Amino acid sequence: MITDEKRHKSGARFFIYAPPSKGRTRKDGTLISKRRLPNRPFHGAKPWQCSVYYFWWEYLRRHEGYRDTCRAGGAGEYADLYADFGNVHATDDFWAWWRTHQHLFCEPPSRGIQECLFNRHSTDDELIISVPLEVRTVHLVRMFRRLLQKNADRIQKARAKSRALYPVGAKPNLGALHTSLTVWDIQQANPKLKLHELFDLASTQTMIAVDERIIIEGDDGDKPYILHLAKAEREAREMGYDDVLLREARRVVRRRKAQTINRHLKTANAYIRNVALGQFPQK
């Protein structure tokens, strides 16, 4: 069976109703066909007689006025019709006439779904299309899917665009939003604490962290080594010492903690300021 899609690609003829078919038969005379023929119009009807187009030809042959036009070689009252259908009385062989006139009944080449490129009403968020209603639904759906695939980039961009009254201002990082808000709340509840102390308190409620590794430059060309503050603190307690190097490491880490807290406070304040403007999360 020729589908809308196949005729669209190959230009094969397509008929709304079953066209005449000679049919292939087995040795026992039973019909072999990819298509289910209409019910036989009469007992013993041939496959090609199971078509409205066959009866079209037969009925036209019964028309006296058209017969006169055929006798006159196409002149007369039905000259315009004759220009298309020709002399249906030239032969009693239906197939001889059908081979040269079947184009009268086939559908035009299948139209596909098309994008209307020049439309004053269209926007970047829309795809206005022309849908040929004579094409079967199953093929329209297939064409529509192909058109969507062709415009995948536009679709992705349109779906990512918010049309809310208050659209989200940026791709949110929920973990970062929580951390900055928690830091801000802690600072409001403990205004007298130093920044590094706020960090220590916030670290118990969030995933906030800093790098506590300190690179110590070696003396006299020795290679630098990394001091881990937490490990050094533990060793200092176990060995009972508190040297200058350890105090410097503490100072560096406190500075890192203060910078981290200060960054989160600035971010939280920006969020709070802009949320009142209808913009969030906006730094």
Question: In words, what does this structure look like?
Answer:
The protein has 283 residues and is mainly alpha-helical. A two-stranded antiparallel sheet has the order 1-2. A two-stranded antiparallel ribbon has the order 3-4. Strands 5-6 form a two-stranded antiparallel sheet. The radius of gyration is 43 Å and the shape is rod-shaped.
Q: How many domain modules? A: 3
The helical percent reads 40-55%
| Oligomeric assembly | single chain
Main β-sheet, spatial strand arrangement: 1-2
Span of the ends, CA to CA? 63 Å
Number of strands: 6
What percent strand?
5-15%
Global structural class: mainly alpha
- The low-confidence parts are 1-10
Largest beta-sheet details? 2 strands, antiparallel
Sum up the structure in keywords.
283 residues; two-stranded antiparallel sheet; mainly alpha; 3 domains; disordered N terminus; single chain; 46% helix
Brief summary of the model shown:
The chain is mostly helical and 283 residues long. It has helices spanning 4-10, 52-61, 64-71, 79-85, 94-101, 137-150, 152-160, 174-189, 195-202, 229-239, 244-275, and strands spanning 24-25, 31-32, 114-115, 129-130, 213-216, 225-228.
